[in-house]
């Protein structure tokens, strides 16, 4: 009987537990009641202060004082496996008191307030209480002087370091125009191009001289040497741009009227080719291969008025002694240019065995600065719009370089020529530079473009000047 009673009790227990074994898993029950279940198994964790008021009015899950064996009975409804702690009225009152006490500033001592203020200043850079942005009434206060939002600084900066650099003017790396120059002579000592104040570009191509009108694009053949063995070795415009001087390989200096396209004079005083020409009002200076420099007064019949001798080749012995002699260059010096805003400053460039550009004070005879160009220096031009100058080079880069003055910092390099740059000349407004190269091309570079407002002011000032030549050329 005892054995039978034990089996009956066991059967009864199994029958009582059947709803628990056949019921859906507890996580499904929680999902049906509370929405999607959190991942992972359900765990018990201490109640946080912020959750203390949650479920305060709910009926406790079990009555205090009941035995543990009776609390393990089957839940009366789905979700009964959730743990709901018991909260007495006393616990809620204590919690409310503690929270109220924490928010009460009346018990803060002056020392504690000073500490909080110091912490706020150290952490934020200002006192939070004195610089609240969100306010219930009135206008929002401005941020304290000198305050900078760190997040704004972090997310408003550009990723590239270039954002911190100063914006310089734009210099196109490609030429504005490219013109063919067939049969241009590849000779380091010749000066074969010049740009007039009337916007005509004169180009010497072997035994001929051509004029290119920049405004209209018209091309005029001004002259061709009678003897095919002779060639044009130098061209130079007078300042006003209405007369062109031409040096030839047969030691002549010719003077041409451009408007009439007629030769005015043929001046002979040299004994070898004339490779360089330069105007100073009505005085034309010509340099010959013998080293002599002659001054010509183009207004009078006896034009040869002075001779400078001192060079041993391609340029000077005799009537006048040099004021200064510079011997630091280690190669041929063909690139020579006066600074337009400092009359005592001269720039010179050395050939392949030197490759240096030097800046001189001709009054004191000192070298103000020097830079290694790493290439043969063929020509130098000072900008009239900026405190800069440009140099043309041969071996090995065949490039043009724009330099800052007086720092001699490299502004940019202009590449494109495939052979050495023989000569440089500048447009009348100073914005463009034309380069003649042994690759038989002329390239026009817009490297000194001027601000439009300053450009108008400069043109207005230039138009007010009258011609300094009042006597006709005979």
Automatic annotation (TrEMBL):
One of its GO terms (biological process) is positive regulation of mitotic metaphase/anaphase transition. Pfam families: ANAPC4_WD40, WD40. InterPro entries: Apc4-like_WD40_dom, Cdc20/Fizzy, WD40/YVTN_repeat-like_dom_sf, WD40_repeat_CS, WD40_repeat_dom_sf, WD40_rpt. Residues 200-281 form the Anaphase-promoting complex subunit 4-like WD40 domain. Residues 66-76 have a biased composition (Polar residues). CDD domains: WD40 (cd00200). SMART domains: WD40 (SM00320). WD repeats lie at residues 225-266, 414-445. PROSITE patterns: WD_REPEATS_1, WD_REPEATS_2, WD_REPEATS_REGION. Keywords: Repeat, WD repeat. It comes from the Eukaryota. One of its GO terms (cellular component) is nucleoplasm. Residues 25-83 are annotated as: Disordered. One of its GO terms (molecular function) is anaphase-promoting complex binding. Transmembrane segments: none annotated. This is Cell division cycle 20. The lineage of its organism: Eukaryota, Metazoa, Chordata, Craniata, Vertebrata.
């Amino acid at each position: 009987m005892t054995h039978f009673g034990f089996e009956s009790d066991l059967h009864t227990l199994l029958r009582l537990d059947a709803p628990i074994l056949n019921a859906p898993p507890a996580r499904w029950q929680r999902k049906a009641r509370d929405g999607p279940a959190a991942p992972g198994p359900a765990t018990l964790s201490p109640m946080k202060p912020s959750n203390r008021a949650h479920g305060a009015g709910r009926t406790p899950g079990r009555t205090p004082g009941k035995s543990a064996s009776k609390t393990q009975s089957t839940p009366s409804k789905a979700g009964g496996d959730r743990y709901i702690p018991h909260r007495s009225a006393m616990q809620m009152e204590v919690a409310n008191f503690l929270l109220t006490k924490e928010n009460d500033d009346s018990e803060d001592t002056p020392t504690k307030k000073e500490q909080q203020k110091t912490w706020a200043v150290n952490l934020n850079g200002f006192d939070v209480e004195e610089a609240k942005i969100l306010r219930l009434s009135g206008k929002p206060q401005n941020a304290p002087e000198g305050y900078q939002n760190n997040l704004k600084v972090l997310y408003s900066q550009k990723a590239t370091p270039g954002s911190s650099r100063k914006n310089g003017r734009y210099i196109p790396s490609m030429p504005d125009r490219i013109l063919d120059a067939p049969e241009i002579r590849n000779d380091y000592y010749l000066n074969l191009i010049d740009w007039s104040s009337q916007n005509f570009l004169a180009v010497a191509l072997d035994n001929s001289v051509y004029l290119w009108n920049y405004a209209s694009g018209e091309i005029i053949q001004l002259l061709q040497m009678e003897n095919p063995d002779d060639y044009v070795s130098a061209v130079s415009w007078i300042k006003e741009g209405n007369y062109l001087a031409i040096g030839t390989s047969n030691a002549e200096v010719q003077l041409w009227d451009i408007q009439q396209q007629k030769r005015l004079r043929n001046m002979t005083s040299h004994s070898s080719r004339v490779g360089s020409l330069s105007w100073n009002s009505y005085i034309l200076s010509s340099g010959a291969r013998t080293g002599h420099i002659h001054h010509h007064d183009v207004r009078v019949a006896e034009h040869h008025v002075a001779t400078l001798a001192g060079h041993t080749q391609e340029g000077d012995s005799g009537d006048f002694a040099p004021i200064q002699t510079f011997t630091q260059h280690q190669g041929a010096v063909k690139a020579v240019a006066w600074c337009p805003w400092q009359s005592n400053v001269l720039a010179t460039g050395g050939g392949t065995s030197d490759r240096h550009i030097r800046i001189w004070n001709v009054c004191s005879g000192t070298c103000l600065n020097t830079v290694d160009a790493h290439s043969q220096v063929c020509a130098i031009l000072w900008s009239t719009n900026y405190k800069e100058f440009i140099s043309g080079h041969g071996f090995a880069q065949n490039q043009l370089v724009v330099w800052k003055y007086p720092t001699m910092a490299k502004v940019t390099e202009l590449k494109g020529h495939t052979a050495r740059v023989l000569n440089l000349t500048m447009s009348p407004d100073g914005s463009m530079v034309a380069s003649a190269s042994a690759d038989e091309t002329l390239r026009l570079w817009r490297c000194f473009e001027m601000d439009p407002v300053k450009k108008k002011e400069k043109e207005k000032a230039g138009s007010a000047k009258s011609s300094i030549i009042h006597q006709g050329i005979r």
